[in-house]
Amino acid sequence: MPHLDIRVLGPMQVTLDDQEVTGFETEKERMLLAYLAVEADQPQRRDFLSEMLWPERPEGAARANLRHALACLRHTIGDAPSASSAAPGRRSSGPLP
To answer: How much is the pTM?
Structure first.
């Protein structure tokens, strides 16, 4: 099983199996990962996350940005869902799985 290590005190450092993770598309993607890591013991609502990261954007645009950031983040850290586990057309403003 892969080991993901996230350090948020000082400069943020992310390693996967002792290899530095790079390739984050945006700083908000890194902020999202840091927030989810720090708050890992609590489910997070997508509407809260989208408003927190994109408060200046309309709700629909903020949610689209969040979906994109989550997909990119999962790809970057090697946590992309398999085709068999992805639910086509699934939409939710509830807690993240």
So the answer is: 0.77
